């Protein structure tokens, strides 16, 4: 059964002025932020989970970090971004928000960040960075998630490219999609995680640590 976009969007509440400004900026400057339907599902699940600490891999302009902080009161968020320009922009937007005191932005490559500097574990990790590096992100940061914690990963469907034979994928994206397919098969069969795929936005993966 298919649902109309209008019906789905009727459940999405209007965003405040800052978030609308960020959405417009992302659209005008081709900055990838989470699709409206997907961020609504993610934040609703996080409201249910009620994590006290969240780690985000891939800040971009800070949109999802702000949305998560708004959805989960008292939650503290650490978010990592390697693009210097986006880091500065994210910090500006976060300072404009009313949740900025609960969000810490770290500038750097998430694959090079020294995880021993983190003072605690994270109840949730949200991976929304280079799609071909999901395996490496997962292996690096999953030890920081305790039993009962959740790892969320966006863009698993990759606009349908994950669901077609590799030889049909454009050559310039073939390596990334190969890595994504390998990661997806690996995590589906990982005995330490209960994993499900949610067909919302561009595909959201939810991995509950046993």
Describe the structure concisely for a colleague:
GO terms for molecular function: magnesium ion binding; O-methyltransferase activity; S-adenosylmethionine-dependent methyltransferase activity; tRNA (uridine) methyltransferase activity. This protein has helices at 5-9, 17-28, 36-49, 63-71, 84-96, 134-141, 171-188, and strands at residues 53-57, 76-81, 103-107, 124-127, 150-153, 193-198, 204-209.
Question: What count of helical segments does DSSP give?
Answer: 7
Per DSSP E runs of 2 or more residues, the count of β-strands stands at 7
Order of helices and strands: HHHEHEHEEHEHEE
Q: What amount of the residues lies in strands?
A: 15-25%
Overall 3D geometry? globular
Helix content: 25-40%
Question: How would you characterize the overall build of this protein?
Answer:
Its EC number is 2.1.1.-. Catalyzes the methylation of 5-hydroxyuridine (ho5U) to form 5-methoxyuridine (mo5U) at position 34 in tRNAs. It is an enzyme of class 2 (transferase). InterPro entries: Cation-dep_OMT (IPR050362), SAM-dependent_MTases_sf (IPR029063), SAM_O-MeTrfase (IPR002935), TrmR_methyltr (IPR043675). The protein is α/β, with parallel strands linked by helices. It has a single domain, classed as 3-Layer(aba) Sandwich (Rossmann fold). Helix content is 38%, strand content 17%. The protein has seven helices and seven strands; from the N terminus they run H-H-H-E-H-E-H-E-E-H-E-H-E-E. It has helices spanning 5-9, 17-28, 36-49, 63-71, 84-96, 134-141, 171-188; strands at residues 53-57, 76-81, 103-107, 124-127, 150-153, 193-198, 204-209. The chain has a seven-stranded mixed sheet with strand order 3-2-1-4-5-7-6, sandwiched between helices. Helix 4 links the parallel strand 1 (53-57) and strand 2 (76-81). The longest helix is centred in the last third of the chain and has 18 residues, at 171-188.
């Amino acid at each position: 059964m298919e649902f109309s976009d209008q019906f789905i969007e009727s459940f999405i509440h209007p965003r405040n002025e800052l978030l609308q400004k960020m959405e417009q900026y992302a659209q005008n400057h081709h900055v990838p932020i989470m699709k409206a339907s997907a961020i609504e599902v993610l934040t609703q699940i996080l409201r249910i989970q009620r994590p006290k600490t969240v780690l985000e891999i891939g800040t971009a302009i800070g949109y999802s970090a702000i949305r998560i902080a708004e959805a989960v009161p008292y939650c503290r968020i650490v978010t990592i971004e390697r693009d210097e320009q986006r880091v500065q922009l994210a910090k500006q937007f976060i300072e404009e928000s009313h949740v900025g005191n609960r969000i810490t932005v770290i500038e750097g490559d998430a694959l090079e960040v020294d995880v021993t500097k983190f003072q605690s574990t994270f109840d949730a990790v949200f991976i929304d960075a280079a799609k071909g590096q999901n395996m490496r992100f997962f292996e690096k940061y999953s030890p920081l998630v305790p039993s009962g914690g959740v790892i969320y990963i966006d863009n698993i469907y990759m606009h349908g490219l994950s669901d077609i034979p590799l030889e049909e994928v454009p050559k310039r994206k073939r390596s990334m999609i190969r890595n994504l397919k390998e990661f997806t098969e690996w995590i589906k069969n990982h005995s330490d995680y209960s994993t499900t795929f949610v067909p919302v936005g561009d595909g959201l993966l939810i991995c509950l640590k046993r």
